[in-house]
Design brief:
The strands form four sheets. This protein has a three-stranded antiparallel beta sheet, with no helix packed on it. Helix 4 packs across helix 5 and helix 15 packs antiparallel against helix 16. It is about 50% helix and about 10% strand. The chain is mainly alpha-helical. The chain is elongated. About 40% of the residues are buried. It is built from 16 helices and ten strands. The chain starts with 13 loop residues before the first strand and ends with a helix. The protein folds into two domains: about 260 residues, set domain protein methyltransferase, domain 1; about 130 residues, no CATH class.
């Protein structure tokens, strides 16, 4: 019996499996309108997105979340609802939603057998999130901005234990209550695991008319794509949290997906505007085709608000016609900061190109490794997963700058053709 069966999770049109993204969910060929996964709402983890600690009465959303946990004693195996100290923190605690979700998950893992089994059999024991990286791994990024983000996030998350000790000691005390379960004392490492898990598995939805974060067994197996084919949320009757094939292409800037085929991987979007820095920081992976990444500012700054948008558009079209997708991506990045008035004319544009080419060369020169060295490093089978991610990131950045160089070549070619005419 799989670890979701005790929750009453059903897979009407999908099944867990393994594909190119690792473990995930795959369509079983049923009708597109059949739910992919359904989980009873009364067994999920839920916290309101926003809290109002000073309010005299619970909001409808807060009241709905309280009621959900009250029903746990009847709906979860073991018949146990979280104690008041835990529930009060989840719905009223002056803390980020990820810390509140971490508390929900940590308590459930300790005291609810079904959640303990799900954590042990399905959820990772360790995470590759960048904020958990070592100094050597962060240095391997060769990106000081992203390194600082990771260091700051690590310090912030590490402060969670001290915050609970000072502000919410009853929460920590509830983690060590005697519920006829022989457990080691709750530790900072337990909270760290729960917070990392909350980051990687929480998804949005509504309850009681308000925005909430959920962790849903079964549904959380769906992998990420910037071209998702599935949507998720509470069911129309409010009894379940569902994953469904996307019939209305709710994510902007993509075509309506085709009807599902047998074996198609079911994909959701973790954040339509999330750059690779944030994917690595919170989820521990990157997407080489991420549309939200940007070129290094050092390379583009000499042409920002100077290079004419017409020249950028012409170069982008030429690159698209040539099938150079990444160089066309560089053109789109540059178009967002181009001069719409084209005041500099052809000569001004060529001066911008020369300045940006020089800046890109300086950026490449400052890098601690070359593309060839990064490619060679990735051939090492002993490379740890997080270090491999860091090397892939810096290689991707170098390839992006190389694509930027091809874009600059295209601007020069288009300018030369214009002069010949």
């Amino acid at each position: 019996m799989d670890a979701t069966a005790a929750f009453g999770v059903a897979y009407p049109a999908s099944a867990p499996g393994t594909g190119e993204r690792g473990r995930g969910l795959f369509h079983t060929g049923a009708d597109a309108e059949t739910p992919l996964v359904t989980a009873p709402l009364d067994v999920v983890l839920c916290v309101p997105e926003a809290v109002n600690p000073g309010a005299e009465e619970d909001s409808p959303c807060t009241a709905a979340v309280r009621a959900l946990y009250a029903r746990w004693k009847d709906s979860t195996p073991g018949g146990l609802s979280p104690p008041d100290a835990i529930v009060d923190f989840l719905v009223r605690g002056e803390a980020p939603k990820d810390l509140r979700m971490a508390v929900a998950l940590a308590w459930s893992r300790r005291f609810v057998p079904a959640w303990r089994r799900y954590a042990e059999e399905v959820m990772p024991a360790e995470y590759e999130s960048l904020y958990l990286g070592t100094e050597a791994e962060l240095e391997a990024l060769q990106d000081e901005t992203v390194r600082r983000m990771a260091v700051g996030s690590k310090a912030n998350y590490a402060a969670g234990w001290a915050f609970l000790e000072e502000k919410y000691p009853a929460v920590l005390a509830a983690m060590d209550e005697d519920n006829n379960v022989a457990l080691a004392p709750f530790s900072p490492a337990d909270l760290e695991w729960a917070r990392a898990t909350a980051h990687t598995r929480a998804m949005s939805g509504e309850l009681g008319g308000g925005a909430c974060a959920f962790v849903v067994p079964g549904v959380d197996l769906a992998n990420h794509s910037f071209a998702p084919n599935a949507t998720f949320g509470t069911s129309e009757n409010g009894d379940a949290f569902e994953l469904r094939w996307d019939l209305e292409h709710s994510t902007k800037k993509r075509r309506k997906p085709a009807d599902p085929g047998l074996g198609d991987e079911i994909l959701i979007c973790y954040g339509a505007r999330m750059p690779n820095a944030l994917l690595m920081l919170h989820y521990g992976f990157m997407d080489p085709e991420n549309p939200n990444d940007q070129l290094p500012m050092e390379c583009t700054l000499p042409g920002a608000r100077r290079l004419g948008s017409a020249s950028v558009a012409d170069a982008g079209k030429a690159l698209r016609d040539a099938g150079d997708e990444r160089a066309e991506w560089a053109a789109r990045c540059m178009f967002a900061m181009a001069d719409p008035t084209c005041a500099g004319g052809r000569e001004g544009d060529l001066r911008c190109v020369a300045a940006m080419r020089e800046a890109a060369a300086e950026w490449e020169k400052a890098a601690a490794t070359t593309m060839a060295e990064d490619e060679a490093a990735l051939e090492d089978d002993a490379l740890a997963p997080r270090m491999e991610m860091c090397v892939r990131y810096r290689l991707m950045q170098k390839r992006n700058v190389a694509a930027f160089g091809r874009f600059l070549d295209a601007v020069e070619r288009e300018a030369a053709e214009e002069e010949d005419e």
